[in-house]
Automatic annotation (TrEMBL):
<protein>
    <submittedName>
        <fullName>Duplicated orphan permease</fullName>
    </submittedName>
</protein>
<dbReference type="InterPro" id="IPR050250">
    <property type="entry name" value="Macrolide_Exporter_MacB"/>
</dbReference>
<keyword id="KW-1133">Transmembrane helix</keyword>
<feature type="transmembrane region" description="Helical">
    <location>
        <begin position="376"/>
        <end position="399"/>
    </location>
</feature>
<feature type="domain" description="ABC3 transporter permease C-terminal">
    <location>
        <begin position="682"/>
        <end position="794"/>
    </location>
</feature>
<keyword id="KW-1003">Cell membrane</keyword>
<feature type="transmembrane region" description="Helical">
    <location>
        <begin position="681"/>
        <end position="702"/>
    </location>
</feature>
<feature type="transmembrane region" description="Helical">
    <location>
        <begin position="730"/>
        <end position="749"/>
    </location>
</feature>
<keyword id="KW-0812">Transmembrane</keyword>
<feature type="transmembrane region" description="Helical">
    <location>
        <begin position="764"/>
        <end position="784"/>
    </location>
</feature>
<feature type="transmembrane region" description="Helical">
    <location>
        <begin position="430"/>
        <end position="449"/>
    </location>
</feature>
<feature type="transmembrane region" description="Helical">
    <location>
        <begin position="285"/>
        <end position="307"/>
    </location>
</feature>
<keyword id="KW-0472">Membrane</keyword>
<feature type="transmembrane region" description="Helical">
    <location>
        <begin position="21"/>
        <end position="41"/>
    </location>
</feature>
<dbReference type="GO" id="GO:0022857">
    <property type="term" value="F:transmembrane transporter activity"/>
</dbReference>
<dbReference type="InterPro" id="IPR025857">
    <property type="entry name" value="MacB_PCD"/>
</dbReference>
<feature type="transmembrane region" description="Helical">
    <location>
        <begin position="328"/>
        <end position="356"/>
    </location>
</feature>
Length: 801
């Protein structure tokens, strides 16, 4: 019997080639896109989840209560890790880790190259499942001069990992470190990426401020005993900093808490001190999109199968007369759906295989089809069965329910089976549902594109075009060489201005509460973002200024300060003419000085965050700075050649490296840009697949009304009139879908925009544009069948009468 059913299904498929091709295409696109999204979600969920000690690994986080605000993040004191091991028996291992990436020059003999790395505590390799190719977890980072390097670095400098062990590496042409460990290259599914690690004590020695409990910045990772009570430890950590930090009091409080280590990647956003999403929102979003695409494809199959059901009605009637029961008939039609789905899966896999390289390039992933793993095939089988059952359920239940008397009473071959209102409403409801989903994707795509375009093109308050970042390193760290380099660059053609800054303008993250002024409420702790800069910075960035910039003509500028408008507003100085508080006293870290200039607010972090109060001090040492170099428009290539030439003259032992300000800014919105691109593709596919369903329903309707169309033509109806008659019912469905989708998508996108401190409004014309697009696409789809039906010779449709 099963063999007979398979033959019937295959013959029907071959006999109706166009119908079969549309069905398989729709299912293949839906399944292929859903599979791509599933692979992406699986990769996202797998980040940081590969460590053997994963259930016991935690990030130590901090909440700060000050100035009426609650901030939370993974910034902690640099000496916290060792103290936690001493104070809490639940903590087996603890390690500090620099959240900031260090680009350093590594030299071995005549081999010189830049590598990116971090500093980490001695327990690092005991905590994390990072395979060591040479060395042991206990010794890899056990002394201040220890360095652990990746396989890639070991092969570049020493030929192989084993040969690297015990050898010396010079960093930044200053200090020598001994290779005590070689680890496997960091996997793609790790949020921590580095080519080398240096012992934590070396970092503390370089940065004396890290020894103070009141200064935060580094990260702290811990591993707990398997029997540790996490809730109890969390409660004990909450007041932990109060006995170490003398600044904690009525005006300021800091509390530690734990976050499971794997959660740090997906749940990185905090609002009012509480976890508030992160990348997990995109995982959920695309999970919903995958389900929607699969549902749209399944609905297509239902509509197309129903459109062809009039051809199968008599087959069902005859089978029932011959004794077939409903369950067997339903099983046959579900089997046919599974056959379609199985064939669609083959095309879906081909589609995924073809698109995966481009998909990886777009998302920055290294996803592969895990064809050697049983779980992959189990998932494919589950997807195929689920899709086939959903797609075939309605046609199977509908056709198997037909009564033999009803379907066989028509005498002629041209008689048509008329279905009830319930079946018609269900099919129309499915089309409305499809177009609701399509409208959600169309409007969502437009809003995401506009917002991303806005943040990428908005005026930041400084000009990022023609601005180049070059690290201050090597010989240029000396004051005399720094000045020589700057003066020499200013003599080169195409270079307009040169200055330096502690961090790039898009990454100023250090803050302090150590700022006071006359009249400040001693019971209120006010945090301000702070950075150190060189001369001529505001001229180089082209930031507007009231007052003056730092100048070598004023020796007292080493104790003077620049602030932005947000800081001036928070300080609240009252001036006679209501102008900026230039010349007013201010003290930072116990060092009194004056405000010499007030900068116009500029964005120094992501547009997700409001502009915070900012204070700048003059850098007394050029080391750990970054050159800001302003070039002449259109002369970037010549300027880079000039900079490299001067660099090689003054700093020959360090490879020349640079970054464009534009590129650095774009990195802030990499996730949003990827989401925008994927949304574009998925919106197009959703619309395309939905149109296949609309095509099926219009074909069904035209077939049901063949005789009516013939009669109308005989009575003088025009082709345009008949096309309008057949189209208006579908347009009603599309309009209904637009009305349902509009408030839903407004709410969803408004929630998404709340993640931006600076955002565009959702305007009415976006919904109008999306509605017009949906109507136009629907009309184009419907018109094919409508015109075909309207042009049919009425003699053919009426001759059986």
């Amino acid at each position: 019997m099963l063999r007979n059913y398979f033959k019937i299904a295959w013959r029907n498929m071959v006999r109706n080639k166009a119908f079969s091709a549309i069905n398989i295409l729709g299912l293949a696109l839906g399944m292929g896109c859903s599979l791509l999204i599933f692979l992406w979600i699986q990769d996202e969920l797998g980040v940081d989840n590969y460590h053997a000690n994963g259930p016991h690994l935690y990030r130590v986080m901090q909440r700060q209560f000050s100035d009426g605000k609650i901030d939370a993040g993974n910034y902690t004191p640099g000496i916290l890790a060792d103290e936690l091991k001493k104070q809490f028996p639940e903590v087996i291992y603890a390690a500090g880790y620099t959240g900031w990436e260090a680009q350093m020059t590594l030299t071995v003999g005549d081999k010189i190259n830049k590598q990116s790395g971090h500093w980490a505590g001695a327990d690092w390799f005991k905590m994390f499942s990072i395979p060591l190719l040479a060395g042991t977890p206990a010794t890899a980072l056990n002394s201040p001069t220890s360095i652990a390097i990746s396989r890639k670095v070991a092969e570049f400098y020493f030929g192989n990992p084993v040969a690297a062990l015990g050898k010396s590496i010079r960093i930044d042409n200053k200090n020598d470190y001994q290779v005590m460990g070689v680890f496997e290259n960091m996997p793609q599914n790790s949020s921590d990426k580095y080519d080398f690690l240096i012992n934590w004590q070396d970092c503390v020695t370089r940065n004396p401020w890290m020894k103070e409990w009141g200064n935060n910045g580094p990260h702290t990772r811990i591993m707990l005993r398997p029997d540790a009570n996490v809730s109890n430890l969390d409660a004990k950590l909450k007041p932990f900093l109060r006995k170490y930090n003398k600044d904690i009091g009525k005006s300021f409080d800091a509390q530690l808490f734990l976050q499971p280590y794997p959660d740090g990647y997906l749940y990185s956003n905090f609002k009012n001190g509480q976890q508030d999403g992160g990348r997990i929102e995109y995982v959920r979003l695309f999970g919903i999109v995958a389900v929607f695409l699969l549902l749209i494809a399944c609905i297509n199959f239902m509509n197309l199968a129903t459109a062809r059901s009039v051809k199968r009605a008599r087959e069902v009637g005859i089978r029932k007369v011959m004794g077939a029961v409903r369950s067997l008939l339903a099983g046959q039609f579900i089997g046919e759906a599974l056959l379609f789905t199985g064939l669609a899966l083959l095309f879906a896999l081909l589609l995924v295989f073809s698109l995966l390289p481009a998909f990886n390039s777009l998302t920055g992933k290294q996803i592969n089809l895990q064809t050697t793993q049983a779980s992959f095939w189990i998932i494919l089988l589950g997807m195929t069965l689920l899709t086939g059952l959903i797609a075939g359920s309605y046609p199977a239940l509908f056709l198997s329910s037909l009564e033999p008397v009803r379907v066989l009473k028509g005498a002629g071959p041209s008689s048509r089976l008329q279905f009830g209102a319930g079946a018609r409403l269900l099919r129309q409801g499915l089309v409305v549902f499809q177009f609701v989903l399509s409208m959600l994707l169309i409007v969502g795509t437009i809003i995401v594109y506009r917002q991303i375009n806005y943040v990428q093109t908005t005026n930041l308050g400084y000009e990022r075009e023609n601005l180049i970042y070059v690290p201050v390193e090597g010989e240029l760290g000396a004051q005399a060489n720094y000045k020589t380099f700057k003066d020499e660059l200013l003599r080169q053609p195409g270079i307009l201005a040169v200055s330096s800054m502690q961090e790039a303008p898009t990454n100023i993250g250090s803050s302090t509460g150590g700022i006071t002024w006359p009249g400040k409420d001693p019971n209120v702790n006010i945090e301000m973002t702070q950075t150190a800069v060189g001369y001529d910075l505001l001229k180089t960035l082209k930031v507007k200024l009231a007052g003056r910039d730092f100048s070598p003509e004023f020796s007292t500028d080493t104790s003077n300060y620049l602030i932005n408008e947000a800081a001036a507003k928070r300080i609240g100085y009252k001036t006679r003419n209501g102008g900026p508080p230039v010349g007013q006293p201010i003290t930072m870290w116990g060092k009194p000085g004056k405000i010499i200039g007030v900068m116009e607010n500029f964005h120094f972090q992501s547009l997700h965050i409001p502009i915070a109060p900012l204070i700048m001090r003059l850098a007394t040492e050029p080391g750990w700075q970054t050159f800001m170099i302003r070039t002449q428009p259109g002369q970037t290539k010549q300027a880079l050649a000039s900079i490299e030439s001067v660099w090689k003259q003054l700093n020959p032992k360090f490879p020349f490296a640079y970054r464009f300000a534009d590129d650095e800014y774009q990195k802030l919105y990499k996730s949003e840009s990827v989401v925008a691109s994927l949304a574009n593709y998925f919106a197009f596919l959703a619309i395309f697949i939905s149109c296949l369903g609309l095509f099926g329903l219009s074909a069904f309707t035209a077939e049901q009304r063949t005789k009516e169309i013939g009669v109308r033509k005989v009575l003088g109806a025009s082709v345009g009139g008949i096309v309008g008659l057949l189209s208006k019912d579908f347009l009603k469905l599309v309009l209904l879908a637009i009305a349902i989708a509009s408030p839903l998508v407004w709410y969803a996108m408004n929630q998404w925009l709340q993640g931006f401190a600076y955002k565009l409004d959702i305007e009415w014309w976006i919904f109008a544009l999306a509605g017009v697009l949906a109507i136009a696409i629907a009309l184009l789809t419907i018109s094919f069948q409508s015109v075909k039906a309207a042009l049919m010779n009425p003699v053919k449709s009426l001759r059986s009468e």
